[in-house]
Structures
1.
Amino acid sequence: MHFDATFFALVALVILFAGFIYIKVPGKVAGYLDERSSNIRRELDEARRLREEAQTVLAEYQRKRREAEAEAQAVLETARSEAERITAEAHAAIEDMIARRTKTAEQKIAQAETQAIADVRSVAADVAVAAAAQVLKTRIGGAAADTLINEGIQAAKARLN
């Protein structure tokens, strides 16, 4: 029988496979593959869990952002209405102050007019009395004239004031 290289290659291959089976290489390879598959499955589960957590956190932050925007809008509206109210109050206060000052000015003007009229009357009375005294002195003489003049001056002053 003649053995060629192919026969020896076949025998070597059978011995190699028998050796692999003897040292349990297929079991170890299967165990390694099972372990690797289990690790990949755990990593995928962890990635899925992390993705769900991230989506939950994202949804929470989006909700908080919407709430913050709504709150900011409410604060803005409140501030705007408060500013409008304060502006209206300020306008009303300014108009009231202007009305009071106008009334005070008008009262001061009326008082000044009254005082001016009284001053003019007083001066006119003094001038009229002085003129009457001068006229009476030139027409009536003596002590009787002085008494009449003084009585007339007092009477004229009392009537004019």
2.
Amino acid sequence: MAGGGLRAAARIRAEADARGISRLPVLDGEGPLAVRRIRSAGPEARVALVGAMSAPLGGDRLTVAAEAGPGARLDVTSTAATIALPGQTKEPAHYDVRLSVEEDAELRWLPEQLISAHGSALQVTTRAEVAPGARLLLREEQVLGRTGEPPGNLTSRLTVRCAGRLLLDQELACGPAAPSGWDGPAALAGHRALGQLVVVRPELAEAPARPQLLGELAALTPLAGPGLLVTAVAPDALRLRRALDEAVRVVG
């Protein structure tokens, strides 16, 4: 605890052994960022983030780093939604996610929703570095306010690079402090749940995905490189998850 907020970090690294089975030589977490190994029926390593205490609160600084070494397969999820709450300081909380997928590796980053509670302020930064021939499936879901309450202030930036080249760099801001229009017809149009699905895989460089609508709530956009982006909005978390799950099915 320093400067009115909590500092905590978690690090996960998967490495493939001689048989192609992924192991977890690094699995460390502290404070609210507890990490647990999950039983796997295949060669991949599976990990869950476990919320061990209320966080992020105002002023907190949390960092999660997940790495898939050469040829490794790593699946990361969480056991419950993350709720951003007001703290004793008016400073925003910071939640930084750093993902690294090395050559011929695969990382599936599929946490539960992030809920921006009334009165909270959170800045989320997600950065993914993907090596040539590697694969990434990344899902982000944000819910603006708990049931029956207005949202807090949420700023989220997502950056994805492949082989050192930028595939995606986008930022959104929601809540009372966001620029006007964030909830208007050209943006969320009154919806309170929004999410992104990023897919990076080498075959998309040769056969890019086709731009298309996915039902009434989601749209697929090819990226300039071996990737695609699905963006979705929905009235609530349940319909958002259904839309993104359907997107996973469509893109294979």
3.
Amino acid sequence: MKIRPLPVVLTAVITAGLLIGGWFTYRNEADLKPLDRIATSAPGVTNAKPVIGRSSITLNLTLDRDANLRNIYDTIATEGDDIIGSKDLKLNIEKSGSSEKLEDAWASMLFEVAQAMDHRSYSDIPSAMKQAESKNPGIQAVSEMDDTNVYITLKDDKAVKYIVLPRVSNTIGVWPNA
């Protein structure tokens, strides 16, 4: 019995196409659309685009001027727990216009915020926000925190800057002299 190569190749190509197409359809309908729906239902979110990776889920968000980052993260994390599972949830906020005033304010407080994050003295961040407000009139600086992130919102009369800083837990390593 002679095996004809054309039917074998066509069968393999059609089978691979159906499997890959089915996988993409399943992923789109079972993961991406529900996560997009959950994110856009959060108050303050105007647009959301989820990107699912092996170990993390990144949500590219467009936010309103009065959005509350901590509430948005909490809503997405709790309602999307079935989809997110053990993956890390990361928020990537799309810039909606920038202000040189906000960038200067962020640059002026960046050292204090970075030091507070590195030393895990998170209570120093609100004082850095108050200093930035006093040094830069017309700027509103708000910071919030939960178990996973520190959320900073800077506002002026024209623009808003949202910053999400992940809190990294202490890692136990091996001491070099042990």
